[in-house]
């Protein structure tokens, strides 16, 4: 039952927002009493922590699946971006990350420190892969570019209220990041990916 509550809460939080979903809403959606929820979670904050942890795990599982498909480095980044777009396409237009930062800053900080470690690793592996494939320049300072990119991405998500706006700017950031690193071959691949997603 605990897992079911976490799964339903995660779905509602992403769809309607962390602030607006109440314990009553979750109980109503699941046709259970609020008392049942409180049996497992002493308050909403604990449920939010568990839910964000579940979503976090799901995101990284999907990322691993995409990486296992062995696309080239640029195609891989676009696939990951599309996965995020699909994941959040049914939610209200307020960015879940922005809401979390605003209303539950402690939970947000805990996620952020873990997320930065995971993303840093992911970005580093992607850049190294792109260099091996001849899509990114071999003279790049990998650590600096990793920092540039996650600073860009986290800044967009923290400070953009609208989810659709955040996704639009993220696409611009991905293009900007890729062009800054790309070889001639890399630019050709980037143009191909941009054309694919705009069709």
Automatic annotation (TrEMBL):
<feature type="domain" description="HTH tetR-type">
    <location>
        <begin position="1"/>
        <end position="59"/>
    </location>
</feature>
<dbReference type="Pfam" id="PF00440">
    <property type="entry name" value="TetR_N"/>
</dbReference>
<protein>
    <submittedName>
        <fullName>TetR/AcrR family transcriptional regulator</fullName>
    </submittedName>
</protein>
<keyword id="KW-0238">DNA-binding</keyword>
<feature type="DNA-binding region" description="H-T-H motif">
    <location>
        <begin position="22"/>
        <end position="41"/>
    </location>
</feature>
<dbReference type="InterPro" id="IPR001647">
    <property type="entry name" value="HTH_TetR"/>
</dbReference>
<dbReference type="InterPro" id="IPR050624">
    <property type="entry name" value="HTH-type_Tx_Regulator"/>
</dbReference>
<dbReference type="InterPro" id="IPR009057">
    <property type="entry name" value="Homeodomain-like_sf"/>
</dbReference>
<dbReference type="InterPro" id="IPR036271">
    <property type="entry name" value="Tet_transcr_reg_TetR-rel_C_sf"/>
</dbReference>
């Amino acid at each position: 039952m605990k897992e079911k509550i976490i799964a339903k809460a995660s779905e509602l939080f992403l769809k309607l927002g962390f602030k607006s979903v109440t314990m009553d809403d979750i109980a109503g959606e699941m046709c259970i009493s609020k008392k049942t929820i409180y049996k497992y979670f002493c308050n909403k904050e604990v449920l939010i922590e568990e839910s964000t942890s579940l979503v976090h795990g799901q995101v990284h599982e999907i990322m691993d699946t995409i990486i296992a498909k062995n696309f080239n480095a640029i195609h891989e980044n676009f696939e990951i971006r599309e996965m995020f777009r699909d994941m959040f396409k049914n939610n209200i237009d307020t960015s879940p990350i922005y809401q979390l930062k605003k209303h539950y800053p402690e939970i947000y900080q805990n996620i952020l420190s873990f997320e930065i470690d995971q993303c840093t690793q992911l970005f580093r592996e992607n850049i190294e892969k792109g260099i091996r494939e001849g899509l990114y320049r071999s003279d790049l300072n990998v650590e600096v570019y990793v920092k540039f990119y996650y600073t860009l991405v986290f800044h967009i998500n923290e400070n953009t209220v609208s989810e659709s706006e955040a996704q639009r700017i993220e696409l611009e950031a991905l293009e900007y990041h890729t062009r800054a690193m790309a070889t001639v071959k890399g630019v050709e691949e980037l143009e191909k990916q941009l054309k694919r997603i705009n069709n």
